[in-house]
Amino acid sequence: MISFKQLPIEAKAAVAAGVVFFSMMLSRSYLAEKLDFRTRRWLLRLQMALFANTLMLMGSLHVWRSTVTTFTRSSAASSFCFMLWKIAVFMFLALAHSSFFTLLFLVAEEPYFFSLTAYTCLGAYIILIFFLFTLGSVEQAYKFLAGRGAKASTGNKNRTALKPVLAVLLTVVLTVVGLLNASQPPTVNSVEIPVHKLPSAMNNLKVVLLSDIHLGPTVGKTKLAMIVRMVKALKPDITVIVGDLSDAEAKIIRPAVEPLGELDSPLGTYFVTGNHEYYTSDVSNWFELLKSFNIQPLHNENVKIVSPKSTSDWFCLAGVDDIEADVLRYSGHGMDLKKALRGCSSEHAIVLLAHQPIAAKWALQERPDINLILSGHTHGGQIFPLNAGAYLLNPFFVGLYQVGQNTFVYVSPGTMYYGIPMRLGSRAEITEIILRSP
């Protein structure tokens, strides 16, 4: 029987990741009631950071072997430039690993340079792992097809060296492109959506949809103020924020949130939780802070949006808690559609705010009379190659979907980004939704 010491280091990292994951499940199930709220909050976030790092360790070992160890037997291995290269790769990996801990220790009104650098390295790390894996797979396929003849093995060393060089070059190019794309202001996307049973007096009602702003280590007050200015310029009747507003505790990041107080939509500004609100474990304080800015959280509840032209014309705007609250066993929270739609009958139009597209799917299975669901969460994949995973894991990925004859789902690609200040294959968006009466 093989002992733990005899296992390869990648296997040890996998075991460590499993141990951390088990401890997360254990603390959620058995320690939730025994620990005070603040301790539980810090424990959860620390466990998540450790879990991510133990998983990344396997990839980091592969990066080091591909970009450093591969060249140790070459003539350049003893050169000063190679020593600098080894230091650069080590620092790159160290920064990528440290990014998750900035959520715990480096959150302020504006992002720290260290946090921006660390998360940029994390984004580049994801891209580099993808290309190393892809090029490695192509190399193995070539060897299989070419056979093991002398002719095929002649240029083997050159191909082995070419793989990491090409992967690094592609990573650098895409990282720069991603950084430039994410640094641009969100695009304003105007969408017209017919809403069954919307009163004719409310035709052309304008709703501005925000999602996934992720105030925290890499998004601060300056970017939020820019978003608020853009929203105000659109002059919406209603503004809705469908989750993942922040990755930090309300008290810590309060100064960065102040621009939200300038939102002045005449029919109100509304908010529902996303999964990251529950990762911070500070939902109650966030609700109080948002209320102080005249933003109403919809905590499995609804409001009547009444037409300014006629009090008899209205539709039901409802919001549900994010489904992650159930997974985390967050007391007093969890998706409760029946409670959220209490009093919302099919005689009036129903618009639902639900952060995750999977929640939108579940809601329609239970209440197919919902006319419009506004979601976020996917970020449109945010960066390549994560786009494919986000597409496969969500029933609705990004943009407008029609479900049945009288129901639509719109999924925002996000108004900012999560952590990594990059976007590849997606664009940040402020959505201007024009509701049309049939």
From TrEMBL:
- Looking at the record, the residues that make up the Calcineurin-like phosphoesterase domain are 205-380
User: Membrane-spanning residues where?
Assistant: 12-30, 42-64, 84-106, 112-135, 161-180
* Coiled-coil regions listed: none
| Claim: Hydrolase is one of the keywords in the record | no
Keywords per UniProt = Membrane, Transmembrane, Transmembrane helix
> What is the originating organism of this protein?
Spizella passerina (Chipping sparrow)
* Signal sequence, start to end: none
Q: Which Pfam families match?
A: Metallophos
Q: Which GO terms describe its molecular function?
A: hydrolase activity
Tell me yes or no: is Cytoplasm among this UniProt entry's keywords.
Answer: no
The protein's name is: TMPPE metallophosphoesterase
